[in-house]
Amino acid sequence: MTATLPEKLQSLVDELASIDDLEEKYLMLIELGEELPDIPADRKTEACLIQGCQSVVHAYATLEDGKLRLHGYADAKIVNGLLALLIKGLDGLSPQAFLAVDPKFIERTGVIKTLTPSRVNGFYNIHEKFKAEALIALGKMEGKV
Amino acid sequence: MPYDLNKVRSDFPILSRTVHGKPLVYLDNGATSQKPQAVIQALVDFYSRHNANIHRGAHGLGSEATGAYEQARGLVERFVGAHNGNEIVFTRNTTESINLLATAWGRQHVQAGDEIVLTAAEHHANVVPWYMLAKEKGAKLVFLPLDADGRVDLGAAAKRIGPRCKVLSFAWVSNVLGGINPVKALAALGKAQGALVFVDAAQAAPHFAMRLADLGVDAAAFSAHKMLGPTGVGVLWAQEKLLESMEPYQGGGSMISKVTPELITWNRIPWKFEAGTPNIADVVAFGAALKYLKDLGWPELQAHEARLTAHGLEKLKQVEGLKLYGPAGAQDRVAVFSFQLEGVDPTDAGALLDAQGIEVRVGHHCCQPLMENLGVPGLIRASAYLYNSEAELDILAEGLKKVVRTLAKPHARA
Prior knowledge:
The complex is a heterodimer.
Chain A: H1 7-18, H2 22-34, E1 57-64, E2 67-74, H3 77-90, H4 95-99, H5 117-144
Antiparallel strand pairs in A: 1-2
Chain B: H1 5-10, E1 18-19, E2 22-23, E3 25-26, H2 37-50, H3 60-80, E4 88-91, H4 94-109, E5 115-119, H5 128-137, E6 140-144, H6 154-160, E7 165-171, H7 183-192, E8 196-200, E9 219-223, E10 234-238, H8 240-245, E11 256-259, E12 264-266, H9 280-296, H10 298-317, E13 322-325, E14 336-341, H11 346-355, E15 358-359, E16 361-363, H12 368-374, E17 379-383, H13 390-408
Parallel strand pairs in B: 3-15, 5-6, 5-7, 7-8, 8-9
Antiparallel strand pairs in B: 1-2, 4-10, 9-10, 11-12, 13-14, 14-17, 16-17
Helix pairs in contact in B: 2-9, 3-9, 4-5, 10-13, 11-13
């Protein structure tokens, strides 16, 4: 559980964890989310829809030059912030490096214990979606070799 | 006697705690109420001094426990204005009461082609058991439309409730819209067609003294936990004749009179419907809750809540972009406020209010048909109760303004 995180993610997690006030934590997540570009309309499909979220969340990954690129957008701003945390912290890693990150890092931020179970699941479901795509990407890469 | 809100609040230990470092503003009473010390103490006393199984032990403790349990039934009987204690069945909650009725009465009487008439604002607890019955019997569910205030449209109901109506089942007070339905007028429409008329009083019982026997309905149900009592106790009130005519819902100990290999006979009502060891301690503590409410005074409680309703309506009107659902007039509703904030996802509002110590509910409120009817995915609901203050509703309104400010403006990270 104390595994080292990729540098960018570690710094975001540290920043969130250092904020005592819950409102300020949420504000940071909202701001992170606002930096996310919306995704193309043709990606807002059932295939990219995250199940088990109270609000509408789309997420998907692409493989570019052996790196996993993460994309997504959520209507609700706090969930969008959680999505942004994953994307900003883990975008551009190799599929192997992505798969090495335990999503339980979210517990260290101090936001998850205050959220409703459906949103906690929402976060893990978004990560699951990226993980599934990372595994597919890995399969493709290994198939090439 | 004047309503001493400070004294009332001091009776509820939980109200003095903080949430995320902020004073607790508990406005999710529609989901469950907080408990006064008298109720907590009743539980402690029961388990500390009187605990035994009931209706069986040939010993002193058993008699004490049985006495306390049946005394609570007497308090419920007086609270609802029942003819006698035989009309009071203890269940786990309102949901179980409705399942009991839909199963025990419904299976005996509902046939293919019959109509089970509900309203468009029912809680899932008053939809799903009837849906299951309708599916089993080939009966049809009919949903009465609402008027612009979100209450049952009586004109439309009069046209829709016809000779095929076998069951008419509706909420006295909507758990989402807070509107008070015209129970007597609606019940009369059902009775005129010979239907069984049931009232879901889960959101009414906490707020006003009820005279169920005077409403012209056959049965009603409510839950202890929404009116200061513990979780795990519900009440089914039904006319004695109706209960007598029904087959048991569940089989087991306590509900039988005699068991032989060849023949089993049922116990008398209400015990015929209370199979197995009941939730004794929580029923006893519910008695303490009813006593607390009675001592507080129902007229005083209602006057306080009417002030909260009027104040809440006034304050919420001042929040920009807030669209309130349900009756516009304070006299037509209880202090339950469901609303949307323009451009704000309800889950975000719920989290940001929670961060300020303000506890509300967001989502579909177990009323998906109503949400579809209103054309919204979900709503924010603030529901007040007897210990809430007008100042807390001010905090809610200010909290909502802050939510709007936080979510409306773009934030550039440094």
